[in-house]
Structures are given as structure tokens and as C-alpha cells.
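Inputs:
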Amino acid sequence: MKTTTQSKWIILLFLAPSLLGFIVFSLIPIVSALYLSFTSWDVIGGAPEFIGLKNYASILFSAEFYRVILNTLKYISLYIPGIIVSSLFVAIMFDRDIKGIGLFRVLLFIPVLTSWVAGSIIWRSVLSGQYGLMNNLLAIVNIDGPSWLTDKSWAMIAIVMVSIWKDLGFFSLILFGGLRGIDRSIYEAARIDGASSLKVITRITLPLLTPTLFFVLITTLVNSFQLFPQIMVMTGGGPDGATQVMVERIYTYGFRYFQMGYASALAIILLIIIVTITLIQLVLQKKWVYYE
Amino acid sequence: MNKHKLKLADKSILLILFLITLISLGPFLWMISTSFKSSGALMSIPIEWIPNEISFKSYEKIIIELPFLRSLFNSILISVFSTLLTIISASMAAFIFAKFEFKHKNVLFILFLASMMVPLQVTGIPIFIILMKLKLINSYVGVIVPTVFNVFAIFLLRQYMRNISNEFIEAALIDGASYFQIYYRIIIPMSIVPITTLIVINFMNYWNDYFWPLIILTDPKKMTLPIMLSKLNSQYATEYNTLMAGSLISMIPILIVYMFAQKYFIRGIQEGGVK
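Outputs:
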């Protein structure tokens, strides 16, 4: 539509809530977070004190930061292959037109609807060492289960398991959507040519699914740097720092210790990681993804 | 392939899916079972799926002793008003981006989209300080007001509204309708499908939200269900029956919404709006 003098006011009026929200809750905070990251500030006592790159230096020279990164990499190396394989497996089954299959699509979505807090509390009980469901089930087959959430070497594995449980229904539906987008006649042609089921999956389904798979990969990667509620509820970052992650550290330094400068520097590092992943995505998308 | 063989394949797929669903929902069955246990039965080995003695103690505790109903009310209030605010603000902006031309429109839109990359965990500290200066910490408004800016909702609605024919708008203008009337008499009713999708998925996101209400709400009387639950989780760490009763109650409203609005959840996923 053409802009008249009257409609200029309309434009401003209608954009006002979002524009104000953008300025107050996005633009100003990003700039402020960057500024705060160069300061030392405890909120209560006076103005932020400018200390240059000190926060970044103490983060990069702390053992804690590398532990956090290692914890996150451990999570990523287990969670991403786990969720992609399991949700692809479920999605391929979802894609069959079998009567009654819709019910499973509906039921498998229930963990997605559940809040992370409720889900984590339930799993804390399931995974509790002696009286938990998991170890009692393992005992039936004579396995002596670990005390999952309080054992340094098992805690992150437990977090991964619970995260896959929570996200399976979500990513299965995403990949199922991708499978539905593939033209059925290609399968027919392959079958007439005598291709085996496995060949159909590896040579036709997976290549045609790369746009969706790529989306899933990037989403899970970005999400992996933002773990929070499951950590807070199930382990609190413990035992002995084994499940400390970026957002949990930002929260702890910012809102428990009120070291706003240090927490802001952590937040900026998180932002750099996320923006990097997103930019790499934009570049690689063209190379990896097969479009028809 | 003959018919019998196909049926066998189908049956095994259904069986595998049944097992996966059982594992997936097992923790919820455990939750229901545990919530009806007395404190003693929590530590029985072998485990009891159906408690020997059904106890309603944990529900009594949750509802009568603890401010849980208050949290339920808080959750409803905050989720409803956050959703309303998001939809109103986003649909107004989307209308402008879809149907008007103005200077730097594309720059502004790209800035909006770019801000989607920045998670709340990065901007959280400055927003907290801004709200503190406005004396909005520990208030409902402090939780609700940041939801006024929702880029995803703007983006989705703009895509949809762009396809609404300009002829409707021009005809209305000739009939003497104001832009405001066009917005709520033509644009909103014609965009009801994406709006419903956004209502459902935003309601769920706000209902389950943890990070922001955790930072803003410190008074137990104002806490939402997830925040109250996580507080109980640290307070009554081993009283699993109480914790399970609380978790169960917190899930019911969203399950009811899901029962009636399933297709909108699925649409929301396909559009990419569910976190």
C-alpha cells in the first residue's frame, strides 16, 4: 500500500509495541551486556567499575571454563547422534500408512508438552540410586545400576538420556514432516528397479531428507549450549562440577553471586558461540544440503 | 510383496512403536503411582507399581499445606496475559510489515530477525536491571512484559498476511473504514489459523517457562508452577510422593489444551515455533 500522511501515524502506532519491545528487551540489553562484560559490578554497591578485559581473562584462564566446555562437548557427542538416530528411526516408522499409527504420534508427544521442571523431577525419582525405578528394573536382569545423578562419570550421561526422552517426540515429528515431503513416486520407481529397503533408505530417503536433517542438527547444536532447567533440577551442576554448563554458570554468577560483570562476559561468550554456529550454518547449508 | 508379508511388517512396526511409547510414558506411570504412595511405601523393595495402600496424603499436602493452588492461578494468569500480549503486539506489527511500505522497512525487519539469534540468557542480566529500575522485580508484569516482542510470531503472521488480497483492504477503505477497523475486522479474522497456532504454542511455552520467571519471581505467593515445583524440589528433595503429585497437577492443564488443539501443536512444530 502507498504511504500517505495519515498512514504514517498508523505505521508508527501499530509498530510501537514491537518496536519498543525490540529496543528495551533486545537492542539496549545486547549493548548493555557487552558494556557490563568489561566491568565489575555487584548491583547493590554503586556504578559498574570499568576493568577492561579482566573478566574475559579470568574466564579464559579458569579451569572451570574448560570444564564447562568439556561438559557441553560430552553432552553434544552423546546427545546429537542419539537424538538424530532415534528420532529418524521413529520418523521412518511414522511414515508408514498403518491403521492406528496416529495414536503413537499423539502419545510420543506427551514428554514434549511436559515442562522441563516436571520432567526432570520425575526422572530424578526414576534415577534415584537405591529406590529408583531404573535401578530396580536393571536389577531384574542382574545389572547393578550406578547412582546416576550423584556419580561423577554417570551424571552427564543421565542428563543426555533424559534430554533424548524429552525431545524424541519433537524431532520425530519434524523428520516425519520432512519424509512426508518426499515424492512417493520415487520410492515406487526404486522398488520396480528392485532396490532393497536399506538401499531405498540410504540412497533415496536420507539424501532427500538432508534439508530437514540439517535443520535438526543446527537446532540441537544451538540448544546444547543452552541447557538449563534439566541441569538445575536434576543435578544443580554437580556432582563436583560434572554437569556445569554455560547458562547454569551465567545464572549462578549473575543471580546467586551477583557478579554481573563476570556473568555478562560469560553471556557474551555464549552469544559468540551461537552466532558462529548460525553463520557456519548459512555457509555450509549450500554445500551439504541436497535440494531437488 | 504379498499381502501377508506386508501385514507382518506392519505388525512389527506397531510393536516396536508400542515398546518405544511404553518406555517414553513409563516415567509418567511411575509419577502417577508414586504420587499415591505413603512416605513408607516410597522405600519399598521390590518396587510397588500399584501401592499396597493408596494414600492421598501428598495431594492433601500439595493443595492444603503448600501454596500450590496459588501457583496454579499465577501460572494461568501469567500464561494467558503473556499470550494475549504477544498476539496483539505481533499481529499489529505483522499487519504493517505485510501491507505497508515505509523507509528502512527491510532493514528493520532484518534487525528483528537477527535478534532471534540472541537468546534471553544473553540479554537476561540487562533486562533484569531495567526491570529492577522500573520496580518490576517480583511482579507479574515483570514476567509478562518482555513477551511483547516476539519475532517468530511477527514473522509467521507477516508471511500469512502478505497473501491476503489487497482488494479487501482497498474496498474497505473506499467504504470509509479506518485502518484500525481493517486490522480487526478483516486482517485478524482472515488470519485466524496462524493466530490459533500461535496462541496454542505460546501458551505452552509460557506455561512451561523456567528461566525468566525463576529470575523475576522470588515471593512464593507469585511463583508459577514450574518455579514452585523447582523450589519444592530443593526443599523436599526426597519426598517424591509430594513432588510427583505436584508434577502431575502441573501437567493437567496443558494436556487438556493438547487434547482439544492437537492439530495446532503439530502445525506449530511444522512452522518451527515450539521450543
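Remarks. Residues 56-288 of chain A form a domain with the MetI-like fold fold (CATH 1.10.3720.10). Chain A has a mean pLDDT of 91.
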